[in-house]
Amino acid sequence: MTSIDTATGRQAPANVSTDRVRAIFSSIADRYELFNACSSLGTYRGWLDKLCEAADIEETDVVLDVAGGTGDVAFAVAEKFRPALVVCTDLVPEMLAVAQAHREEGRGAGVPMEFAVADGQALPFDDASFDAVTMAYGLRNMPERERALAEVFRVLKPDGSFTCLDFATPPNALWRAGYDLYLKTMVPFWGKLITGDASGFRYLARSIEAYPDQAGVARMMEAAGFEDVAWFDCSGGIAAIHVATRPR
Fold it and tell me: Which residues make Cβ contacts (< 8 Å) with residue 73, sequence separation at least 6?
């Protein structure tokens, strides 16, 4: 499977992107949530709500959250759906440590939860282990995206649902131009202000620019074998939520 540099979209060894992601997110884990709130002007909370609205999850389900970071999606799913179990995974231990601290503070509505350090491109779970899989801002940071989607497909049960939130491409040219300017100027500004280092946030802007548009992500999902692939734009296409199902 093809491996790319997630900052450029060009072919490169997987460790180029994986090592970069580990370094960036391990260093900002304790300030990641503050950056999200400030850089998105608070809109990311609305995107989480829309992810939950789009997700097909029931109380009896076992749910996997891939690239779960500090637990925002895992806790939102737990609190809205009260499923049987939520397993939150991430590549970066420091991010999961923040999620576990939130759990100890009482987040998750008492729903059983587990946390595991795991690479979304090589998930340590059996085939057909989960009724639903969620992911936010993860696929864009993975250098072997076809492998990551194949792993989600593998661990899902037949008829299981996959819900994926990430930054996207606004279809309106004027809105897209303003968004590009914001990415290049204000995202590094917020990163520098909150963490003291703008370099990781310049990567964030570059990775968004290099990421496929909504139709391109949908095609990747279909190529991985998913059915009923669709997407919903958020904030005029600044972000998008893709939904898909593993066939019976």
Answer: 48, 51, 65, 134, 135, 136, 165
Residue 4 lies in a domain: no
What are the phi and psi torsion angles at 132 (to 5°)? -150, 150
Q: Quote the pLDDT of residue 192.
A: 85
Residue 220: strand, helix, or coil: helix
Query: Taking the CA atoms of the chain, what radius of gyration do you get in angstroms?
Result: 17
Q: Which residues of the chain have pLDDT under 70?
A: none
Which range marks the domain in which residue 200 is found?
A: 14-245
Q: What is the pLDDT of residue 187?
A: 85
Segment 37-67, tens digit of pLDDT: 888 878 989 999 999 999 999 999 999 999 9
**Contact call for residues 163 and 241 (beta carbons, < 8 A):** yes
Upper half-sphere CA count for residue 233 (Cβ side, 13 Å): 12
DSSP state of 229: E
Q: How many domains does the chain have?
A: 1
Q: Which residues contact 42 (CB under 8 A, 6 or more apart)?
A: none
